[in-house]
Amino acid sequence: MRYDLVIFDNDGVLVDSEPIAHRVLSEYLTELGYPTTREESYRDFLGNAGRNVHDVVMKRYRGSLPADFEARCHERVFAAFRSELTASAGAEELLKALRQQGTLYCLASSSSHEWIRVALDLAGLRAYLPEDRVFSAQDVGVGKPAPDLFRHAATTMGVAPERCLVIEDSPNGVLAARAATMDVYGFTALTTPAKLTAAGATGLISELPEVLGLLAL
């Protein structure tokens, strides 16, 4: 079918932030007395809103995190971003092509607006994603896998959900898009195809330029 709007996840899709963020998060949790590997961080927190970390620590360790945990974790992640973060391979070229051909697109992420802003600026993608094309779970009060964020993005952009194509790298993101009655292609750069398919992905891509082919179908 022909799509009228492409909705991108940010972390792990447009920006190569997940390896950095999960390394920092797992190291910080371990430092606080909650031993966590990077693989466990991916498993438990990929595609989730940040507050899920508190829930996992409480359930698994019967513990709690400092009141300023999120702020301190962000400081550490942003410091690492400044020296390491890059756009995902092909992201800038894809956004440029979409803009040149007049295809409507936006970003919808469970991360905060501050996180998204920092990531886009450091990755050099801000010019392609001004504030009116950026949507955060902060806007709706709930993150993925709830469908609210994707529905909000589509409504704001003036497109019916069934005319949207979502590009996601996490099972929770796929679940959210499907619940919003949108087609969603799983990006397999970080997550195994089996996990994305099990979550209900319409299809799979391994490289971002493949999005242009989906729009040409």
Automatic annotation (TrEMBL):
Keyword Magnesium: yes
Molecular function via GO: hydrolase activity
Tagged with keyword Transcription regulation: no
Superkingdom of origin: Bacteria
A Pfam family it matches: Hydrolase
Keywords, comma-separated and alphabetical: Hydrolase, Magnesium, Metal-binding
Cofactor requirement: Mg(2+)
Protein family membership: Belongs to the HAD-like hydrolase superfamily. CbbY/CbbZ/Gph/YieH family.
UniProt name for this protein: HAD family hydrolase
